[in-house]
Design brief:
Largest sheet: 3 strands, mixed
Membrane topology: Multi-pass membrane protein
GO molecular function: G protein-coupled receptor activity; olfactory receptor activity
Family: Belongs to the G-protein coupled receptor 1 family.
Shape: globular
Order of helices and strands: HEHHEHHHEHHHHH
Strand content: under 5%
Number of strands: 3
Structural class: mainly alpha
Protein name: Olfactory receptor
Keywords: Cell membrane, G-protein coupled receptor, Membrane, Olfaction, Receptor, Sensory transduction, Transducer, Transmembrane, Transmembrane helix
């Protein structure tokens, strides 16, 4: 009898998935704390939606912002909305619920879209660094290199890359047998805490995750830092005014990159062992970074502030 169980547990290919739902441990089990967290994260989510939607509307309506840089920025805002929507609404509902359950299918969907938007954002941040490199280091040929056709091609490529990455990661996860433990040690379904619940040895899967997600994060981070390093070196020969604007843009990008990729490197560049810091880092990854993006790209960007003031002025005039 014991030999039969051991044999099944070491054969992931068999259809041993008997778990129909998972239980999310969440951020807190204290009812009063959950009410406070609900109010905080509801406000954060509403700010994420309003801030990123405002950025997209401003870019669409202002002809002066129809450039490659702002095309990619509007894509970033759209991804941030999608990325936060994958996890935050479910977290808000769980704050008001006694049982924080999620169906097996819902868990798989959450993992798929989480990695789709996260990986696409990593690729997008890399493309944005390349865009700034061309704009600052080769300004005479910028519009020919980053033409509208090229921008659309790059956008399609990063979405395709994110889809392939997410399908591969989710596919490996759902093929594992789940036959008992249901407690996911987080407030959303992610690959590392979910595969810990599998009734089989997941060492090979963990290595594949590190070599996939971890490698993508580290390589993109190195490429981004190198790109901005080259940009900063080239700025030494520029005029002070040009330096200030370019440095402001690069500083904004580096802030976003550090916050976003820092989480990916921390979570996916090691085996799936739970650390006390995982949930804190995950909060920054799913809620805080999408909130900071519109702040960073508007408060540090004179063109965006001018365009937004112009847009709000039109609304006031229209109301009058």
């Amino acid at each position: 009898m014991g030999e039969k169980i051991t044999s099944n547990w070491t054969t992931p290919a068999q259809n041993w998935t008997s778990v129909t739902e998972f239980i999310l441990i969440g951020l807190s089990n204290n009812p009063e704390t959950q009410k406070v967290l609900f109010a905080i994260f509801l406000m954060i989510y509403l700010l994420i939606l309003s801030g990123n939607i405002l950025i997209m509307i401003t870019i669409v309506l202002d002809q002066g912002l129809h450039t490659p840089m702002y095309f990619f920025l509007s894509n970033l805002s759209f991804i941030d909305i999608c990325h936060s929507t994958v996890t935050v609404p479910k977290m808000l509902a769980d704050f008001l619920s006694a049982e924080k359950t999620i169906s097996f299918g819902g868990c798989v969907a959450q993992m798929f879209f989480l990695h789709l938007f996260a990986c696409t954002e990593i690729f997008l941040l890399t493309i944005m660094a390349y865009d700034r490199y061309v704009a600052i280091c080769n300004p005479m040929h910028y519009l020919s290199i980053m033409s509208h056709k090229v921008c659309l091609l790059l956008a399609g490529t990063i979405w395709l890359g994110g889809t392939i990455h997410s399908l591969a990661l989710t596919g490996m996860t759902i093929r594992l047998p789940y036959c008992g433990p249901k407690m996911v040690d987080n407030f959303f379904c992610d690959v590392p805490p979910v595969i810990k619940l599998a009734c089989t040895d997941t060492y090979v899967i963990e290595i594949l995750i590190v070599s996939n997600s971890g490698l993508i994060s580290v390589v993109c981070f190195v490429v981004l830092v190198a790109s901005y390093g080259i940009i900063l070196v080239s700025l030494r020969t520029r005029l002070v005014a040009g330096q200030r604007k370019a440095l402001s843009t690069c500083a904004a990008h580096l802030t976003v990159v550090t916050l976003f990729l820092g989480h990916c490197i921390f979570i996916y560049s090691r085996p799936s062992t739970s650390l006390a810091e995982d949930k804190v880092v995950s909060v920054f990854f799913t809620a805080v970074t999408p909130l900071l993006n519109p702040i960073i790209y508007t408060l540090r960007n004179e063109d965006m502030k001018r365009a937004m003031n112009k847009l709000l002025g039109r609304k006031v005039d229209t109301e009058k």
